[in-house]
Specification:
384 residues, alpha/beta, TIM Barrel, two-stranded antiparallel sheet, 48% helix
């Protein structure tokens, strides 16, 4: 199991954007130290009250120089061409891969807020088709030299990508997928997925992973180069006790989920391609029910380290390869508290069990059992 730290730089009222960014730098450095495998942020534009990271391609290079081992993933880079031309995405990621010494990964997405899509004049009826062509063009630029492309939105004569990425054949590629159709399309293209129940429940997580695994197996059987990684995204806060975690983060996370639900509700009515978001809207009043969010939504973890281990094991049993924690919206010291507790007491449980210090009583029981086993073997030899 791998672990991701997701932050979108949510600013707090009265705080400066400058301070929020420098706090985030400290948080990523701490996550690197505490054993997180990957950091990511989504590309968001014009957001009010949440998500202040509009240019992750500028943020990441600074963090490369401040960290040692943690990887970086665009989670996600937006592919509508009025926001980012796919060849510019390819050039940026290749440059970032070099400067990070091979620690770069690319998640893609078509956009899920009207603030962004309308702000850039994107035709929401074609975002899915634009994403499909963008992914194909980026992959061609990474793997073919020279490459060319002829599609509905992009026509590229023979060209050579400069510079080339460090990782071969290219940095791992993902797509943000929360609907069954987008999960199938991701698998058919051999892409890893960044998914979430988005409050729809554990059964949705199980169904989503099953849909993806079925399709990716067929892609692998065809001989396609695939990234079959399933990353599950959660909103999270960790504290020494469950009640402390609820007191510190509960009201803020409920408010945040309601805001997201309102945004998805508006988008779900505007295009058939986004109609799947209506299932999130159908969760309704549960978005304000912290008990439901913590126990049944499949997308919120608020608790102590033991509670985190329990939830992560559930994701692992369903087939997830990565669990991402969206640690945001709270004061800097509380985000750092989560990072440190998860790094000290949660991540090691899923890495190398030999390194875990066990309770003395457990070890005494194991020693007694081992002695009894040896005595039985000695008795059996004496009888022979």
């Amino acid at each position: 199991m791998k672990f991701g730290f997701l932050s979108e730089g949510d600013p707090r009222v009265g705080q400066t954007y400058s301070q929020r960014y420098w706090d985030l730098v400290d948080q990523v450095i701490l996550a690197d130290k505490m054993g997180f495998d990957v950091f990511g942020t989504s590309e968001q534009h014009f957001a009010l009250g949440i998500a202040s990271i509009s240019a992750p391609e500028c943020l990441y290079p600074y963090l490369f120089a401040k960290t040692e081992r943690i990887r970086f993933r665009h989670a996600v880079a937006l592919t509508p061409y009025l926001i980012n031309h796919p060849l510019r995405i390819a050039e940026r990621v290749a440059t970032q891969d070099i400067l990070s010494r091979g620690r770069m990964e690319l998640g893609t997405g078509r956009g899920n807020t009207m603030l962004t899509l309308r702000g850039f004049g994107v035709d929401i009826e074609t975002t899915r088709d634009q994403w499909e062509e963008a992914v194909d063009l980026i992959r061609a630029a990474f793997t073919q030299d020279p490459f060319t492309y002829q599609g509905k939105f992009f026509q590229v004569p023979p060209r050579s990508l400069v510079p080339k990425p460090l990782q071969y054949p290219h940095p791992p590629m993902f797509v943000a997928s929360t609907g069954p159709d987008s999960l199938r399309r991701a698998a058919q293209k051999g892409l890893g997925v960044i998914t979430s129940a988005v409050e729809r429940g554990w059964s949705y997580v199980e169904d989503a992973i099953a849909v993806y695994k079925k399709e990716i197996a067929e892609a692998e059987a065809s001989g396609m180069h695939v990234n079959n990684t399933i990353a599950v995204n959660t909103t999270a806060h960790c504290a020494p006790t469950v009640q402390q975690a609820i007191d510190e983060a509960g009201p803020t996370i409920v408010h945040e989920r309601k805001l997201a639900g309102d945004a998805f509700a508006r988008l779900s009515t505007l295009s058939p391609d986004y109609a799947y978001l209506k299932k999130i809207v159908d969760v309704g009043d549960n978005l304000g029910d912290l008990d439901y969010l913590r126990k049944d939504s499949g997308s919120i973890i608020i608790g102590d380290p033991d509670n985190f281990v329990e939830n992560i094991q559930r994701f692992a049993d369903l087939g997830a390869d990565e669990v991402w924690f969206r640690l945001d919206s709270l004061p800097h010291e509380l985000i750092c508290q989560s990072i440190e507790l998860i790094g000290r007491y949660v991540i090691p449980q899923f890495k190398d069990q030999r390194q875990i210090v066990q309770h003395p009583e457990i070890m005494r029981r194991k020693l007694r059992e081992k002695r009894a086993e040896i005595q039985q073997q000695e008795t059996a030899k004496a009888v022979q």
